[in-house]
Structure formats: structure tokens, C-alpha cells
Amino acid sequence: MRSVPRDCLRSVRATRGVPIRIESGVRPEPDARRIALYVHFSATGQISEMVRRHLYWLGQSGFTIVFVSMAERIPEAEWQAVRQLCALVVQRRNFGLDFGAWRDLLPEVRRRWQAPEELLLVNDSVLGPIHPIAPLIDAMRAGGDGLFGLTESLQGGPHLQSYMLLVRGQSAVHDVMHFIQTLYVSHSKWLLVQLSEIRLARWMRRRGHRVAALFGYQRLVEAVVADAAERQHLVMTPATQRCLELGNSDDLAAMLVQWPLNPTSHLWHVLATRFGSPFIKTQLVLRNSGRLPGGAGWPDVVSPDAPCPLPILMDHLATVAKV
């Protein structure tokens, strides 16, 4: 409720969607049919090597990239470096998180590329890629038309987590664009998540689109429950501890569905090691506010030949550590 007066004041004072700076990149690709919208923020304003590598690998998967930064100041050399990888580079005010940035840029995307067949929505709330992303994008493409994500959460209702969403097929792309462009964007992070990320999957299903996660929650739970080493990464409660003591794997699996965990936080280890997920949540590394077991060991899952090896990830963390 405290955010409502601020939302009203912003709607009166601010001009929606007006960027601070917008410039074409060196790869305009006017006939592109696969568009990626990448949302960036750093407290220092730097665009790290990790981010640039992420953009590079998206380009290698066939995407024309629109880069949107909500950093207050961006070094000119880094702005120009990103232009080499993108079709469009934009700086906007820091408001509305990823969905707010996507909402403001979609009119420009529709003006430049009128009938995209794929829309990839990405943000930099994750570290990586630590595994190749091309095989995962290919796997989502093999699912046909619809809305696809890497992971799903059951918290607040089944939904895809928005750090990487792939929309396929002109009908699905049209509907997702409509959803985002008509979205109410608030100063309240909680309200924005409820109206955007949690609501999107349900909204798309009602319109007849397929909605699926590459690493479904049930699949992750079954992998964790079946592996004694992975169970050590779970947050122990009296109920889960009792299930483990009695050897009730079925009861533990049912409990983790009835009281679901956040897969990118609580199940991060099995995602990275057993399923080849290319990302680790930045906030898990920086804060681990839930005091998750094994969180401090995240560097151990990054191989020296990763697309973004450990030194590059550590350099990136230095650009966001003030958040």
C-alpha cells in the first residue's frame, strides 16, 4: 500500500518508456526473426565481461540482441563494447525490474522487427553461463510453440522463473508482448512479481499456449530425494529430518511439493551439477539470506573451461556487490 502514492505520482510526472540514451548497435539485422531482450543493472555502472560473454553466446544461438541497462552511469568504453554485440543498446531509469524494462522497450522492438518468431527475455540476476547454453535453447525450441523457461517454481502457484524465458511462435510472441505491454508496473517489488512473473504462465495457458520448464520442479525434487549427497543441500526442518531418518523418500518428495522450495535457491546444486543448468542466482552467492547448506561452495561447480570461468564470475560480482 505504501507504494501506491509513489506509483500514482510517477504516472503523473514521468513519461512512460522514455530512455535516457538509445543507440543502434553494429548488428541491426532488420530482417531478424529471433529477438533477445537482455536487462542489465550494476551498482557501479560497469558492464562486466561475464555479461558480454552471455550476450555473445546468445548471439551464437541466433538471437538479435536488445540490451537494456538500468545502471545510473555506464563507462563509454563499455557502452561501445556492448554495441559490437547488439542491434540496439538502451539506458533507462531503474524502475520496474526486468518486466518494467521489457514493457518500455517492446514498442521499439515491434517497430524495428514487426513479426518475430522467437522472443527471449533475459536478465542478469544470475551468474553464468557456467555450462553451454546452446543445447538448452535447442531443447526448448524442440518443444514447439509456446512459453518455455529453464526452471519453474510452485511458490505462489506454478510459474516459470523469469531470468530466462523463451517465447516461440508468432501467436505466443504476440500474446506475451500484449501481456507485458499492458502490465501495471509498481514500485512494490512484491506486487510486481505477483502481477508479472507469477501471473504470466497462467495467463498464457488460458490462451491455449503450451507452458513448460526444461527443468521441472517435480523432476528436480525426484533427483534430490534419490541422491544422499544432494539431500545434504536441503534446508533441514524437523519434518524433513524425520522423513530422512525413517527413510521415507516418497514422503519427503510429497512434502517438498506440498511446501515447495525455490529451485534456483534451494535446489541450485543439483541444477548445476546433475542437470547442466548454466546459471547460479547472484543473490545466493552474495547474501544466501536463507543460510542454505553448501551455498559457500558454489565455486566448486564452475569448471575451468566453463563459458564464464570463475575469475570472470568473481569480477562480475565486484560490479554488483553494492546492491
What does this structure look like?
The protein has 16 helices and eleven strands. It has helices at 3-13, 49-60, 76-83, 97-112, 134-141, 170-181, 189-195, 197-206, 217-225, 228-231, 238-246, 249-258, 263-266, 268-273, 282-286, 310-320; strands at 21-24, 34-40, 64-69, 88-91, 118-123, 126-127, 146-153, 159-160, 164-168, 211-215, 280-281. Strands 1, 2, 3, 4, 5, 7, 8, 9 and 10 form a nine-stranded mixed β-sheet that branches. α2 (49-60) links the parallel β2 and β3. The longest helix is centred in the first third of the chain and has 16 residues, at 97-112.
Describe the structure concisely for a colleague.
This protein has 16 helices and eleven strands. It is α/β, with parallel strands linked by helices. It folds into two domains: 213 residues, Spore Coat Polysaccharide Biosynthesis Protein SpsA, Chain A; 104 residues, no CATH class.
The level 1 CATH classification of the largest domain is Alpha Beta
Largest sheet: 9 strands, mixed
What is the helical fraction, as a range of percent?
Answer: 40-55%
Q: Structural class of the secondary elements?
A: alpha/beta
Range of strand content: 15-25%
Low-confidence stretches: none
User: Count of helical segments?
Assistant: 16
Based on Cα principal axes, name the global outline. Answer: globular
What is the mean predicted local confidence, pLDDT? 89
CATH topology of the largest domain: Spore Coat Polysaccharide Biosynthesis Protein SpsA, Chain A
- N-to-C terminal Cα separation, in Å? 24 Å
**Count of the domains:** 2
Rg computed from alpha carbons, rounded to a whole number of angstroms: 20 Å
Number of strands: 11
Order of helices and strands: HEEHEHEHEEHEEEHHHEHHHHHHEHH
